[in-house]
Amino acid sequence: MPWKKLPSCILLLLALAYPVQSKLSSQKDSFQEDLLISPLKDGKLLAHFQFTTLVDAGGLDEKDGRYAHYGLFPKSIGQIIDHHRVQELHLTFTQGRWQYEDWGYPVAQSAGTGVELWAWMKLDDSIESNWRSLTNTLSGLFCASLNFIDGTLTSQPELSFRPEGAKNSYNHDERMREGAEVRYGILPHENVCTENLTPWIKLLPCKSKAGIATLLNAHKLYDTNYHSMAIHIRPVCQDANCTSQSLELVQTVTSVLDPVRESGRRDWSFSSLFGREIQSACPVSDRSAVTVLLPSEQHEYQLTPSYDTIIERTAAQVERPIAVYNLSQHTEPLNLQMTWNEGEFSYPLQTSKPRVYAHKYMTGYGHERGGVTVNIFNNMNESQDISYFDSVPWFLKLYLHTLEVSVLGKDHIDQNDIVQDLYYQPAVDRSRPQVLEMKLRLPPDSVTAVSIEFDKVFLKYTEHRPDANRGFDVGPAVITTLLPAGDDNLASTVLELVTNRDTPTRQNIKVYTEILLASLPTPDFSMPYNVITLTCTVIALFFGSIFNLLIRGFSVTEDEVDEKKHENKDEISNSS
Amino acid sequence: MPDSTKRLVIASVWAVVLLGLPLWWKTTAVYRAQLPFSQIDSWAERKACQLSFPSTFVIHLASIADGEPQAHNRPLDFAVIQETITSHVNNRLASTNARECVEFPLHVNIQNWPITSDMKNLLHHIEPSNSKQVIAIADIEEVSSAVITAILKGERERVRSLACDSELTERSNLDGARTMKFSPTYQMTFSLMNGNPDSLQVDWDIEAAVNTYLKPFISEVSLVSNFTVDSQIQHYADLAVTPQFMERQKLPSYYYLTPQTLPHFINSAEWNLASAISSYPTINFILYIPAADKTPLRIHDDKGQPLRSNAFLIPRWGGIAIKNPPKAASGKLEFSKEDLKPFMEIFVAQLRGLIGIHDLKKTMSSLESSYEISLAPTPQTAVTVIEMDAVVKQRIAENVVNSIATLKSLAQLVMDIPNMVVLDHIRTEVQLSLDSLNQACQALQQEDYLKALQHSIHAIERSEKAFFDPTMVSMLYFPDEHKYAIYMPLFVPVSVPLIMAVIKQLKEYKKEKREQKVKAE
Signal peptide location in the record (chain A) (predicted)? Predict the structure, then answer.
């Protein structure tokens, strides 16, 4: 036999035949589905879907550094974070703008318009290529243009976007940061539609065939004032001491619907909002619940069918009762319906403003230079610490010396009293953006204005988008702050309350400003061809005439010569 | 102005134009590295190197029984027996094809088998009744050549058809169509598909099952290709086809799928089977639990009889087994390692087919009628040495042929599209691929199959790297039409006076000639 170097298979066999404990794939997984519905003050309705999959991070097959056997946790996501050595990943697709002043704070923290991706990744030599590969892979998985998040859009925030995982760990921040780095990128111009939702739904254990996810009807979901779809992956602790960790995948869809638009009334039902009803709970879920945050006045409305449990006036300062429907106890399809005891809905003239919010706008005119200003509002009676993050593309050249932080109407407050810390990364043309980060202490009841000026760069011919005259989108500024529970972040505390998780006394809140549209000087794109044609014509004309001059024979006709001969003998020209 | 000056001016302008044209052509041409076309051609015509797949058989003859050296009629002449067996086999396997593009040298090596005490048992096993049986030389020759022929026959045919036949005939070959295209790594995904979790929830201990039943096989075939293994559970896996209903009197009725509907069994739109992280080919194995309203689900063969295994193979894709949950089962169905054993057996058998292992037992069964042959039982690796050997030979032939074909089409592409940019690293890859081909061929002649396999893998990887290089499909190439369009405003107005001047001069020249003639006359 030519097969000389065969290993002894028998020995190998014996080595492999060690007793293996019976381990079923999905025993260590758990899945929860939640739907939170909350009427907003301006007559709109917030519907927040949240699907949580937990998998034991220690119990996974980590023999060769990779998870291999998946139960409820989606294999594609598991492979992606495993392959790219991702510790935490947050990907959000948003369309529309969250109206902080009317709606309070969103349940899902990420709310910047467009597609936002940030991830904490293991720090090693391949982190840059891992990040590039991650954006490309997610781009393929969710049919989005995430692959355009390249070096020119990627930033590394130093003060914002801290890890959210492993919360109970006493020093979670240090532990997470040890050997890990964050990467952040946003595509403000990206459109979100069904083709992104379909792969997102496929990650759910029950897809959209059973449970709360049946309500995810793309026709209704995208016909709203605001919608946002996200996946968040983070490690969480299983117990107080954090001896063992789980990997948590939270998939959310947030939608702000407008029942008033169609009927003039605030009444809604599942069938009117989504065109569907919930048939049953997802059979593999541990918890399947619909939660309605009710208005504080009970006589104003009717809710049918009646709730299973109600939570009233709890410790977490929630002043409104919460109705909970436990789907696993319902045998009949659930079509929740809420009717208000009123005629036409009259829009409130004044809404209660949230404690901290911000607006961003462009200043200046023309195509040469401009500026950007962010107004940060603090409506509290005490000063508030915030972190400010802004990543500006390289084609807007910021001048740091023009950075000005002032409190409107209170000129006596010194800039240095407000700015506690500042981090600035200058841009490198065509390879990285500017990053401006600050720790600010907002004075009580104030409007703080942060402004900076920039020059607009004349881009190369090929660097323009196909719709060059539309301009370039510039991502939002992000403000991160810690706020105690209150009226404006009610919705986000409710879910933590009903899922019996520890409700933190203070909550990390992110406020996203508007995205901006910067119009850059646009060249005439047909110019190169025009130049070529024009130059060629001029050269050809010049050549033709010179050539003609060179080869043409000039001769003087006889009778003229006779006349002129007498006048000037030297002027006899023959040829040239 | 004298005519001679005029002509000189025209001639010099024309000289500048004529000298300038090649310069212009050269400066606007795209860069094309010179590929070794002649070498590629000689490989494509199988002239560069004679492919040969030598095999050596060692026959151990237990010629000397205990204390009876002269048991045989005449002393054994090993050389003669070797020659006879070789010629027998060669005669039987002689190709009918006149044009032979592969050689199959055969060496038979007969060795004396000294009987030691620990072999007694084996001998006892072979000849339990009488150990003093005398076997005629002719019998030895006959049996050996029959066995060797049986082993080599299928193997040689496959290698020959791979190496010599055109692609068209290969495609019609059922065998080749089933085997996965070669890749150094395959991803293997086991999926437990649950038709309807409302009535029945499923779970499995796939990790233990893979470790016990599959790992030995994988480590054995890792000589050829590596495998990564993962698994998932999918709920609400709807069938893309509607099974038919078979109602039976007295017997329980069932649903069934016909062979015609099986290709549509996979619902690739809804079952998450694609992998997002690598581009290696995926081999899928699916254990399908049909929904309660479609139970029991069976598969019919061509004759309309239900298959016993209730499993089928999708060529170049993977395998599917259907498990009907027991009627009484409600709530949860859990597969332990032992429950999974029959399915893992099916999957291993399907995997053997998918990676091109041919069952030796099947080929030997034809011989069993005339001879009593006992094959050493397959160890738990589920693959024997001879089967492995055949796979290695096939894969080498396949890789060599495929890399030649890739290089050939690359050469053709480059020749067909004159505007294509060919960078230097493409040439390097092509050269390296050709070198690897050469080394593989030489290793084959030296009977070093492991080395040949390595080189053939390098050859195919490099040729594909060259072929699929992103610079080969560059968007920014300069078509000739483009060039003409841009330079037209210059060339047309410039050329008109130039040509007119030449024509005029020619006319004048002729006129002069005529006048001179008239004058002379």
Answer: 1-22
